[in-house]
Each structure stands twice: as structure tokens, then as C-alpha cells.
Amino acid sequence: MQLQEIDRVETISKEDFLTKYFKPQKPVVIERFVEDWPAVKKWDLDYMAEVAGDKEVPLYDDRPVTHEDGFNEPHAKMNMRDYIALLKREPTKYRIFLWNILKEVPKLQNDFSYPDFGIRLMKGLPMLFFGGTDSYTFMHYDIDLANIFHFHFHGKKEVILFDQDQNDYLYKIPHSLITREDINFADPDYQKWPALKQAKGFKTHLEHGEVLYMPEGYWHYMRYITPGFSMSLRAIARNPKNLGKAIYNIFWMRHFDNLMRRWKGQEWIDRKNEKAITRTHKKLGLS
Fold first, then answer.
1. Which domains, and CATH codes, for the chain?
2. Which residues contact 256 (CB under 8 A, 6 or more apart)?
3. Segment 152-176, tens digit of pLDDT
């Protein structure tokens, strides 16, 4: 993979963000943009255990998708206090994702505000994501191809990004939002996945208080180097092509995929995984 470091700035004006990053759809890390948030001083794992300890949370790990899994169906559940104790005690693959602050712990909304980046943020969807040491997300992009602002708290996280122009090189699974789940994007096997050598993307590490802007539809792989958590705010896709893809994904693709899983079972999953290889290699003349 040909990865370049994501641009970093200490802070940025709305005008510069729109000109240098939003309009060209280029990622950036802003290191000190939200220092005035109470969350920057308050939010750590202990605080989350204190304010949300009794909440039952959905947990996900890195097991491959099977036909028995529903869309975003959790692999386990645990109360937040016990989950955070697990994160602090030992490495675990269990992660929390898409945990809605407004719904679950409304008081957390008092600890942050909605920054003015020059684009309208969706205020009903602030989501939290947690993970333990060496846990990671599969390479994927979000179903709505939104512009994402990813605020990181507590610990350190590795991030690898690709834009939609790199789809031919990533072994994308048909009728889904993910790549082959057996690819280790932190240390890819180029003998097994030769197309990845041509993929051009971005990389960075996030630390407490930093915010990453991910443009519309960007593929993202995230690995927790230490236990920690992040919050994402999002803005609807502005590019008509991406907005069309989002509508297709939400109203057709995910329902079609779920129907095929119920009808064909594991055969459907296995066929899609195989097509990810054959289509990629055929398009690049590698078959």
C-alpha cells in the first residue's frame, strides 16, 4: 500500500477548512480544535464508567460475518462498567460502535458543542466508539457516505484511509460496505493480496483531543493501540454521486443482502468473498 501521512494542523479557520480540505475532499487532523470542550478535560474511561456504568452496551469483535448475523447485530452485551474494567485489565477484541450519546446518556451532550466547520452537522447522531488494545475495525465505509469528524479521547489509535477511487485495489465485497475481512491492513500479505500494492491512501495516529476529518465515503480501518474511545459527528454527503450511493445503500443494498443471506445462507457469504478476489484480480489483469 502506498500511504501518505494525513495533513496535521494545530487549529484551522472555517474558511481554510472549506478551501483546503472540504472542497478537495482531503482528510486532515486538527490537533487543538476543541480544547475548550469540557470533554477534553473530563472524558476518559473512568468518567465513562461513572456516568454510564449501568448501561448495557452492544459489543462487536473481529469474527468474520456469517449468514446468521443481522445487519450490525452485536456479538455480545455487557454493562459499561464491566466493559471498561475489561478494557483496563487486558487486551480484548470487543468494541462498541454507533453508541448514541443523546439516546443513552443525554448528560454527555453538556460536555461538547457542535463546531462550525462551514458545513451543517447532523445533531441527532453523535456516536461513541470504544476499543481495547489491538482491537480493530474491518476496512469499511459508512452506509451514508457522510462527511465524518472523528474526535478521539483516551489513548492512541491508528487510522488508515482510502477514497472511493481505490475500490479496484481493496478486495471490496459485493453488496456490502467492507473489504475481505481476512486482510490485515496493519501488515498486509502482498503475496496473497497483490492488488493492495497499488492502493494509494492515507495514515495517521490519533491521540486524546484530536479530531480527524474523513471526507465523503472514505474507507477507514481503525486499530486501538491502547484502550480508548472516540466520538463521531457527521454531515450529509454533498456530492450528488455519493448521495445517490447513500440512498441506494440504505434503501436497497442492505435489504437485498439480508434477503440473500436468509435465502442462500452461508453460500451467499462465501460466494461474495470469492467474487471479491476474482473481480479484483480480473480487473487488474492478475488472474
1. 2-283 (2.60.120.650)
2. 175
3. 999 999 999 999 999 999 999 999 9
